[in-house]
Design a protein that fits this description.
Blueprint (H helix, E strand, L loop, with lengths): L7 E9 L9 E9 L3 E10 L7 H6 L8 E8 L3 H10 L2 E2 L8 E8 L4 E6 L2 H18 L6 E8 L4 E9 L4 E6 L2 E5 L1 H11 L3 E2 L13 E5 L5 E3 L4 E2 L7 H14 L1
Antiparallel strand pairs: 1-2, 1-6, 2-3, 3-4, 5-7, 6-7, 8-9, 8-13, 9-10, 10-11, 12-15, 13-14
Protein name: DUF2442 domain-containing protein
Length: 254
């Protein structure tokens, strides 16, 4: 059963990581109520089955001993439309989640009807949830907005592109040689998917801004990677590096 998106009063998104081993295995529940001026939001993120591991094993994987996260607060109303649109275009299964895990949805409308279902477009819901959680991290000051720097150095010309991705506002600020504009949210999200797909060789990365001809990216941690040398496709069937170059060149020259 599909409730009318315009009648929705609350959506709960429950995610289970399934067969993923600890310390990565986790569950989260997002409770989102639609208010007049904001989305009243609760997040409970809990890592599971860590009692099987030693403290050292958890720390060696880059985690801390307390990675659970809880939030209650207001998220900007700009998130309402994409969430309701996602709900409206989703198809549903009446089956429960299997061992692979995934997302299940509870939806409630203003008439009091409640529907529990599993979306067939799992990846879309997982992507939305991760973006929404990133917005929560910004609002709670757990993390700053994502910043990327890209440098195109030619013989007689240098173009510097700075991206600031504000998940809390679904807004992207792009600066090209100091000139500030706003970039398209969905296009930038596509570009980010290319940025974080390749492998980055930190053995070849430089902390100083490169001075030789080429294209370079700093993913926000202060290390410059040269495109084509320190940034390598991990899948031979998909050239993410070229897609990334095209995306930044489009931002620079259009």
């Amino acid at each position: 059963m599909h409730l009318k998106s315009e009648d929705l009063s609350r959506i709960e998104i429950l995610f289970e990581s399934g067969m993923v081993p600890p310390p990565y295995s986790h569950i989260f529940k997002l409770k989102i109520s639609f208010g007049k001026f904001f989305l009243d939001t609760n997040l409970d993120l809990t890592y599971t089955d860590r009692e099987e591991l030693s403290e050292e094993e958890i720390l060696d994987e880059g985690f801390t001993l307390d990675d659970d996260f809880h939030f209650q607060g207001e998220i900007p109303i700009v998130w309402e439309k994409p969430l309701k649109e996602l709900y409206a275009r989703s198809k549903w299964s009446n089956n429960k989640l299997d061992d692979e895990g995934g997302i299940s949805i509870l939806a409630k409308d203003r008439h009091g009807q409640i529907v529990r279902t599993v979306p067939l477009n799992q990846q879309e819901w997982q992507n939305f949830s991760q973006d929404y959680i990133q917005a929560i991290y910004e609002i709670s000051k757990k993390e700053a907005p994502l910043q990327l720097n890209y440098l195109i150095r030619e013989n007689q010309k240098q173009t510097e592109i700075n991206l600031t991705v504000k998940f809390s506002l679904r807004k992207v600020e792009v600066s090209v040689n100091g000139k500030l504009n706003e970039a398209d949210w969905e296009e930038t999200k596509q570009l980010l998917s290319y940025v974080f797909l390749p492998d980055y060789d930190y053995g070849k990365a430089k902390e100083k801004t490169p001075q030789h001809v080429g294209q370079f990216i700093d993913c926000g941690d202060g290390y410059w990677h040269e495109i084509g040398k320190g940034v390598i496709n991990i899948d031979n069937s998909f050239d993410a590096v070229s897609k990334m170059k095209e995306g930044f060149e489009h931002l620079a020259y259009h």
